[in-house]
What we know:
Blueprint: E1 10-16, E2 18-19, E3 31-32, H1 39-53, E4 62-69, H2 77-90, E5 93-103, H3 107-110, H4 113-118, E6 123-129, H5 133-138, H6 145-157, E7 163-169, H7 176-188, E8 193-198, H8 206-209, H9 217-233, E9 237-240, E10 243-245, H10 252-258, E11 262-266, E12 271-276, E13 281-287, H11 291-297, E14 304-309, H12 312-323, E15 330-331, H13 332-339, H14 347-355, E16 359-362, E17 365-368, H15 370-374, H16 376-381
Parallel strand pairs: 1-4, 1-11, 2-3, 4-5, 5-6, 6-7, 7-8
Antiparallel strand pairs: 8-10, 9-10, 12-13, 13-14, 15-17, 16-17
Helix pairs in contact: 1-2, 7-9
Amino acid sequence: MFDFTAPPPLSLYIHFPWCIRKCPYCDFNSHAVGEELPEQAYVDALLKDLEQELPGVWGRTVQSIFMGGGTPSLFSAPAMDRLLSGVRARLPLSPDAEITLEANPGSAEQGRFAGYREAGINRLSIGVQSFSDTQLRQLGRVHGTEEALRAAHAARAAGFENFNLDLMFGLPGQNTEQALAELTTATGLEPAHLSWYQLTIEPNTLFHAHPPALPDEDLKWAIQEAGQSLLATQGYTQYEVSAYARAGQRCRHNLNYWRFGDYIGIGAGAHGKTTDGARGVIQRRWKTRHPQAFLANAGSAECVAGQRQLGAADAVFEFTLNRLRLREGFRLGEFTDVTGLDPQRIAPLLEQAAADGLLRLDDGRVRHTEHGWRFLDNLIERFLVEEDQHARCQPD
C-alpha cells in the first residue's frame, strides 16, 4: 500500500496512569492512586509490554523517550533507573537521546529530581499550570504557587538546564493583565521551553459536567496575541500551536509526533504508531486503559485493546493534522518520506488551500499564511477526505 525508502525516526512513549487525585479538566487516562503505588509491579509490566512491541521495530534506534501520565514523578528514582536500564537492555538508544519525565511541582517530587538525573533523564516537563493559588485551587491542583516556583529552581539545581513549564491561559475569571503576569513569572524562571496553552473543556471531565465561567473568545484571543508578543521579547519562539522554545531547545520527542514519526507506546492506555516498510504498512495500536487490567495482562495479547492499519486517506489527514501544527511547514518530499505516498495524493488539496489564502506553496515547500495560521482548524479540516478503499484492520 505505502512505498517507503526508510522508516521514520522512532520514539518511545511510556504512560504512568496514577495521580494523587484527578483534576477536573483532565481527560487523560489517569486514576487517583490508592493506598499503595504498585511501583515494582508496574515497572515489570512495562518491560513485558515493551518486549511484546520489539518484533515490530527490530534493528531500529530510539531517538527519544517521553514518560507521561498521570504523574510519573510519583515513581521513585530507583524505579526509573530500573525501568530505563531495562529499556536500554532491550532497544538501541541513540547516545544523545532526549529522555523526558513529566513531573508535578510538589515537594516530594522535587526531592527526587537529582535521582532522576542520575538515572539518565535529561529533560523535565513540570506541570505548573498557574502561578495563582486561587486558580490552582479551581483547577484542582495539589500544589501551590510557592511549590511551583521552587520546582523550577530545584530542577536547575539538580542539573536540568533543559526543562519545560506547562502553563494554561483562559482560566476562570482571568483577564489579559493576569494572564500576562503569570507568563512573566514563568519566563522569569528561565525555562528552556514553555508549553502555554488554552484551557479547554473536554467531554467526560468534571468541568464538562459543571463548567466554570471562562473568558469569552475575543478575550482569549487578545490574551493569546499579547502573550505571544511577550514571549517573543523574552527569546521564546513559537514553533507549534502551544509550544515555545529558546534556540535549540525544541522538544525533540514531540517534534517526532508532529512530523509523523513512529513511536512505541507502552503502559496502561498508551498508543503507538509504527511503520513496516517491507510490508508497506502503517499501524496504530493501543493498550488496555485500566491499570489493574494492564498489570494483569502485560505482555499478552489481552493487553492490546485495539489495532488498525491506516489507509491512504488516514495517512493524509493524520500527517496534515500533525504537521500543520508546526510553524515550519513541510516539504512535499517529507510527506512522501513518512507516509510512503506520492505527493500528488495531497497536491490538489494544497493548491486549493493556497488559492484560498491559507497556505503558500513555493518550490515544493508548504507554509502557512498568517490567515491560515489563525484559522488552523479550518485549514486542517480540508484534509479530512473520504476514506479510500484500501483494506483496514478494524479495532478489537
